Amino acid sequence: MEDFNWKEYLKDSFISMLWFSLLLFPMLVMKITVKGGMADVTYRWGYLVVIPVSAFILSALWKYFRERQQGGDKADKRGEIAALFRRTFIENRTVKKVSIISAILIMAFYPVFSGMYNTNVMISALIYIMLGLGLNIVLGLGGMLHLGHAAFFAVGAYTYGLFFKYAGQFFVDAGISTGWMFWIALPAGGIMAAVFGVLLSLPVLRLRGDYLAIVTLAFGEIMRMVLQNWGNVTGGATGISLIPRPWLFGINVTPRLAAVYIYYIVFAFVIISIITVSRLENSRIGRAWEAMREDEIACQSMGIDLVRNKLTAFILGSVWAGVAGVLFASQTTYINPDSFTIWESILILCIVVLGGTGSISGVILGALIIKLLPEYMRAFAQYRLLVFGLALVLMMIFRPGGIIKKVRKIYRFPLDEENDAAAEGQN
Amino acid sequence: MEKIMEIDNLSMVFGGLKAIDNVNMSINSGAITALIGPNGAGKTTLFNCITGVYKPTSGSVSIKKPGQKESEKISGLKPHIINRKGLARTFQNIRLFSNMSVLENVMVGRHHKLKANIMGALLRDRKTREEEEKVVNDSYEILKKINLHKFVNEMARNLPYGAQRRLEIARALSTDPFLLLLDEPAAGMNPLETRELEDTINRLRSEEKITILLIEHDMSLVMNISEHIYVVDYGKMIAEGSPDEVKRNPDVIKAYLGE
Amino acid sequence: MDYFLKLLLSGTAKGSIYALIALGYTMVYGIIKLINFAHGEIYMIGAFVALLVGGTLQSAGVNPAVILVVSTLAAVFFAAAYGLTMEKIAYKPLRTAPRLSVLISAIGMSMFLQNLVLLSQTEKYLSFPSFLPEFLFLKPIRGYINSTQFIILIITSIVMVLLTLLIKFTLIGKAMRATSQDREMAQLVGININSVITVTFIIGSATAAIGGILICSYMGQINYYIGFIAGIKAFVAAVLGGIGSIPGAVLGSFVLGWTESLGTGYISSDYEDSFAFIILILILTVKPSGILGRKENQKV
């Protein structure tokens, strides 16, 4: 720290103090209310202290971290410590095994030792893990920025909802428990999402990344508008209610038990998702995706069909969202278009990007943070979008790989002794 | 001699600029053909038209695989389709998958020869595992041919420059081409590496029976290995012939040295 | 025919507001190839500042003409300041990062600004007092065009002309054109890229703020969310006309304005916002380069 230039820090911080005080004055200090056509402005002078102080501190921190990011040698030392930490705690096989097993155990017995409220909260977190893993196939593996993931979530949920709305009476008349409908809707939701995925992706997969993002966003909004405005079919803004819970051996279960039951179904799906994503990653198709993300032109010239590979990733992601949608409908027993807005899609994007694009454990962590933090920290809840928005910006600048960076398993050729010796000799 | 590729009146226009202007060309089976010309003459654009990266504005490219009777038109097809028909290429500005290992780069080239689908990937049945094992071994064999096997587990971005160029060739080979298009394979290589490259190219032709078309600026390499040379300038084909003929051609001398 | 003419005129008014916002998108895209997701938020903030300043002056009993001028200037200044700051924080550090990273950063910025206004002001719709004057001479044709629409058309035309002159004839305009054609080359001939980008953000944000005031006066209400929808629509307009092209953005905006106006008039007003999205999907699948855009060729 011998060349720590505190004068420059002071100067910069002082300038940003003035600048942000000016910038935020109308938004934070002034507050508008309009009554009877007359605008009335009240002032919150307290902010005039808060803004300069925080701007001063944050500016200094910003400058410090930016310089550290750009400067080389000091970062190296820290990098070494971080690498040591990684080797001993994260990449260590025993540590990894123990933590995975204990996490599975905790999650497996979670509903046993927690109440119904907590179980329900955890169910929605698990559903978001599924959504995150689904988007991770599209974004993390396929490399496509997809801003309409919630639309496919909606397709799943509405497949179940509409199936119940129009075929429920038939099941009742025939004397079959409506709980069975869940098990039919589950694959149907996935299939419907796949169908929509094909319909959307066939024309747009050729588009460049940023255009693809906007088109998927537009698709999501169209979907929501249709659900909202096509009232006599979809139930409009009020949606569909009284969707049956899954069937459990014909037992009329209490809501508490039903929650536990759904918990285990969702938990099983999360496990399946994790296995699926990790196996896909380390397969022939995962290899092609990796190559595609690195260089599309070289990839094509090696005989790989880009459109087909992107389509596979897109559809797989959609299917996951569709299945998650059915699970969501069965948990809440009530759906309406508000659960599937563009912000839902962006929240899922936050899960993947903040957690770690392409990293399974990252996505799980991301989903837990984004779903559980606002739930258990009520004071934080209203600020969550503000915080997540800022976190997206900062993450892209300081840690583009997310909280848990993706570590790809690399294919190694098992060199035997003889080969090794030969290689040595040639060196 | 059997012709395995024929380019007929090919033109490529960008905006108002004719990057390639009515080019005709043919490649003989088993030959090493070179494409030379000053910078910006349209050589790489021609490669891009052949391999499907660009759709030519007019004219056609057709191929006749060795042993086949009918020739087929490939211009306008997608790059991956053209590659699957047996044309593989390397890139002038190295386009390796730099965050993948040397082995993986080659494995990607064998992608479309494999059959494992999503179910195979999920279930990891015996067929899939055997196939994966085979592709690893095949890829290693290809690396051996190009003498890159000592780097097999290195990351592609960590290779020395010359080795990266050779890895480009190995990756192209892994798609089993009958015609290999090399875009400045010797660029940035030292004389020793260039010699080694010359051997490799000769070996590919004699042992693997692969026909080669290369763009190159290193004239001694070009004159040493190629049987036939095409010269382009400002998108036009200005000369062709054996190395000696091309060397004496006044148009070529003018194009290279100016008037 | 009357009905059609009326719809066409209101479509023109709407389209000219979209044009004011679309210009910012298209200019920023032309220069740093970024879909500035948060551009709509800048326009919303501009309108809010106009409301805050205008409201303060109104309750102090100031002359309406003074209110109009002062609140417009304030809105333009603050919008430009927000645009500039946003560029410095969220985009400048990512100059060499992959395109998708910058896009994600822009999405984050959009979320942040929207919620900043939501939390610090209100989530409710506020009625936006009309600062704009009434023209008596328009009385006979009021059935077709009202004063607000008339002012919108006039102001938009003035801004367009000024912008065209700026880009065609000034030094900074030349630098902007050069940068959008080839950033590296522009740098080599001594153009300071960073200042070009800064100026682009300032101009784009300032025109957006004018658009913000006009659209809020037209609609008569304001809300933290208006920036998002209008932003997306303006983006659609820019893509429709060919992103990166300034005349394209204007043309695309009018086409979008007319489509929306005629669509809601003859089909259904429930789907007003979805016309833009449907056009977007159609144009990108059929002709991604837009009406006046040039095809980008990838370098190999």
Describe, in plain words, how this protein is organized in 3D.
The complex is a heterotrimer of chains A (427), B (259) and C (300). Chain A is mainly α and 427 residues long. Chain A folds into 2 domains: 1-63, no CATH class; 99-398, no CATH class. Chain A is 75% helix and 4% strand. Chain A is built from 18 helices and 4 strands. A two-stranded antiparallel sheet of chain A has the order 1-2. Chain A has a two-stranded antiparallel sheet with strand order 3-4. In chain B, helix 3 (102-109) packs across helix 5. By secondary structure, chain B is α/β, with parallel strands linked by helices. Chain B has helices at 43-51, 79-84, 102-109, 118-123, 126-145, 161-173, 191-208, 219-225, 243-248, 250-257, and strands spanning 3-14, 17-28, 32-36, 58-63, 72-73, 87-89, 179-183, 211-215, 228-233, 236-241. In chain B, a hairpin with a 2-residue loop joins strand 9 and strand 10 (236-241). By secondary structure, chain C is mostly helical. Chain C has 11 helices and 2 strands; from the N terminus they run ααααβααααβααα. Chain C has helices spanning 2-32, 39-59, 64-91, 99-120, 147-169, 171-181, 183-188, 193-219, 226-241, 246-266, 274-286, and strands at residues 126-127, 221-222. The longest helix of chain C has 31 residues, at 2-32. The N and C termini of chain C lie far apart (54 Å). The mean pLDDT of chain C is 87. Chains in contact: A-B, A-C, B-C. Chains A and C meet through helix 1, strand 1, strand 2, helix 8 and helix 14 of A and helix 2, helix 3, helix 4, strand 1 and helix 9 of C.
List the helices and strands and how they pair.
The complex is a heterotrimer of chains A (427), B (259) and C (300).
Chain A: H1 6-29, E1 30-35, E2 38-43, H2 47-70, H3 73-90, H4 93-113, H5 116-141, H6 149-173, H7 180-204, H8 209-229, H9 231-234, E3 240-241, H10 255-281, H11 284-294, H12 296-301, H13 306-332, E4 334-335, H14 342-355, H15 360-376, H16 378-381, H17 384-398, H18 417-426
Chain B: E1 3-14, E2 17-28, E3 32-36, H1 43-51, E4 58-63, E5 72-73, H2 79-84, E6 87-89, H3 102-109, H4 118-123, H5 126-145, H6 161-173, E7 179-183, H7 191-208, E8 211-215, H8 219-225, E9 228-233, E10 236-241, H9 243-248, H10 250-257
Parallel strand pairs in B: 3-8, 3-9, 6-7, 7-8
Antiparallel strand pairs in B: 1-2, 1-4, 4-5, 9-10
Chain C: H1 2-32, H2 39-59, H3 64-91, H4 99-120, E1 126-127, H5 147-169, H6 171-181, H7 183-188, H8 193-219, E2 221-222, H9 226-241, H10 246-266, H11 274-286
Antiparallel strand pairs in C: 1-2
Helix pairs in contact in C: 1-5, 1-6, 1-8, 1-9, 1-10, 2-3, 2-4, 2-8, 2-9, 3-8, 5-6, 5-8, 6-8, 9-10, 9-11
